[in-house]
Batch of 2 targets.
Target 1
Amino acid sequence: MNRKLKNLILAVLLCVAAVPVFAVEEYVSLVYKEIDVAFANRSDEILDKILQKYQGDDYYFLMENYSMKKVRRLIIINDYEFAMNADLVIIDNNLDNIEAVELYATITDAYEMQKTLDRLAEEKRRAEEVRLVNLKEEQRGTAAKQYNAVTTSTGNTVYVTGKDGGQLTYNGLNYGLGVVPGFVMNSSINEENNLKAATAGMALDFGYYTILKKTNIGGDLGIQAGIPLTGQDQSIFVDASIAGKVAFRDFMDKLFLRAGVAIEGSLKGESNSSLFNQDVQNAFFTPLLGFKFQEIPLGKMAVSAGVDWFAAHLWTPGLNAAGKVDLSMNIPFGVTDKVILDFIIGARDIVFLKNTGLENRTNFVIALGGRNVK
């Protein structure tokens, strides 16, 4: 019986002794949570208030050690700035904490080393940027020395041909197909042969050039045919030419000099009442000389204009002079990677100065066409 009583008394004493231990653990755990909040918010002010509040507590050393443990974790993730601030708070609240002082020195050394590494990395990054810029300028300078440059209609510079050779790196191409309504006016000395007639026809134009070292060189092909819109006339007027062209890049790369051959005039029908049988210029074969401004940029549009002289008037009886003026505008309505699609409008005027009077043929061009992208 006495033995049972002794065991009961011992159990009671152990329970009473355990209560303060558990109370202490729960109490310190609450302070740990407050410290966690301070570090989560990166607030050395909150941490300072916590440590000041419990500075005289019997278990302050536990709170202090827990705070230093949190500081060491900051060092692992390279958060040196807040680690130093938090460690200073620990030192300020306990100047006798030698371990915290040594830890601060360690953090300072690591922080300075990290700043040095960051500075070197930044200097390396900037040096690489400068190197790339210099390399780009060097390549641009090399391109300018080795290649000829072309300014496109958008104002960009494209290097196209080697200056030390004649390699072809860009070809200009333009084409169009459309209708050519117009009229013929023949003012004759014999008023009975005066003529005014509306006409209509079709036109096909094709142009090509390629860039060489000093020149742009290529050719043009144009075919136009029409008929009068009066009565049963079977006459056909023609305007067909093929010409080579060249532009000197050092002078003006858009101004082409042209030389070729053409067929101009009227092919008369079988009808004796044909309008074009009334003192209208018969078709003739002729050399031609001329010039043409090709695709002069006008905003997004391009304007072309040219003049041709027909040399056959020098040996054709009754014909004193002959020539043609051509003006057109390309209005883009679609662009692909390689082609600009154009709506083309323009006018052409062919003049024959004859012994019997002046014959003037005017046609208006309405066409669809395209150009290759520069």
Target 2
Amino acid sequence: MKKIVGTIAAMALVASAAFADVGIGAWGRGIWAPVAGNGSNVTTFEAASWGPTDSNIRTGITIHGESENIGFAIDMNADGFKGAGIGDTAFIWAKPWSWLYVAIGKVQDNAARGDGCFGQFGWWRQVGPAWVGTMGYGTSMAGEDLTFVRFGNGAGSQATGAIVKVTPIDGLWIEAAFDINSKDSDENFTTVKEAADVYKNGQYGAGYDIKGIGHIRAQYIGSANAINAAFDLKAVENLTLTVGAKIGLTSGASTTVAAYANYKVAMVTIHALFNGTIATNSFDFEIAAGCDVDLGNGVGVNADVRFYNNGATGDKGAVSFMAGVAKGFSNGVIGVAFEGIILSNTNDFYWSVPVKMEYWF
């Protein structure tokens, strides 16, 4: 009997190995500026491209496993060199039927996300003083979640809760995301939320991918009490275009409109971006344009320029720019660039020479 049980267990193990896939992936990026200037001092630093000069680099690894019906993913990194910790995601997912997807844990879904990432966004985003924010005015440089906020990120950071997604017919999806857990000051999950509050602050949306035409979608973001809608055009060859708006429903809330496009001509890709926030007494916006040139053999150059207007404070604005060259490989890249920002009010000039190293596996 024991032999029979052992044989069955061994067969189950072999079967699970045959139909499941467990693997390791990785992504990381670091910026080292041998020299950088703020108008009075010349410094040197290392950072993540999205972080301040004391943020250190991103070295990350992902462990994942999946079969046809169930799986998991854990994203870890050593940010800050304080030991390895959980990054953006750590979740379990299941598909009991082909049309139903459920995930629980620290989870997000990027499928409907509307991005506009190019130029400085992929190098160092924080040239300039604190009032400029991260190359903008109190908000991040436009790039990720530009026209449509990913599910699980409605509150501005990755949800620790659940995502439920239904795909009843080809091209149509209906989705909801909930941020269930709260952390205390020591990063412990200790606060139990009222169910009504969780569902009131959830994300609820739907979209339809029209084959050969585009992807239209809309959502309600409860944590922001806002409607977010976007459309991605797919009908024009070599053109990427996404447009969207986020409309606050609370009295006096702002409205954001955004668009990003790129067009490829031979070895050149041209980028353009607009991101504007309309409030009661102000209009803040960012306008950007850039280009990438593929020189062959993994070598490419890219450049962009951005103008920022801050209507709320009366600042005359700022102009940032960069130009860089990089050598790409099958699983990474190394490059060097020059970045700068000029503040119109004071004519102050901040600059850096970032060396970027990035890997993916």
